[in-house]
Amino acid sequence: MKAPVDLQSDVGEVLVSEEQIQAKVRELGARISVDYAGRELTLVSVLKGSLPFMADLMRSITVPVRIDLMEVSSYGGTSTESSGLVRILKDLSASIADEDVLLVEDIIDTGLTLNYLVRYLRGKGPASLRICTLLDKPARRLVEIPVDYTGFTIEDRFVVGYGLDFGEFYRNLRYVGVLRPEVYSTPPAIGEPEA
User: Which CATH number belongs to the domain containing residue 122 in this structure?
Assistant: First the structure.
């Protein structure tokens, strides 16, 4: 039988505190507000991980914003490695043609999924397309991605919290923490589905 998720004990260390996140979100919101002064902005969040970040970020931006959501699937055989094959599960609900668009991400890892999304969104004819990410993990980058706004650059560690998950859990933590290796390296019990 699988052990229950323990939100606090499963995290080995707090990498970015709630206070650090909120201060960085305010700083990013102020920079974005200056850069888009006198314009309207469409924020596009990639479900599900970036929802908390986008919710806080949009409240820190002082120019008029619209929001839209996309959901993509890019994970293959295991839940911790991207396959690079991207499927769009939920597309934008409105046109972004001639709009200033800011793609809001929780974390940029290999860059494969984001590279696909940037090409896909550019094909929809936005006036501009920029990227804002809470976390950047350049050690795992396979594709170069021009990131316009970065919250924190982190080392190659398995992080959860503030929208980031493992097996759909831990998203509700108010900080970003490093998941203990034994939590994600233990194979599922017989009859248990893989996370």
Answer: 3.40.50.2020
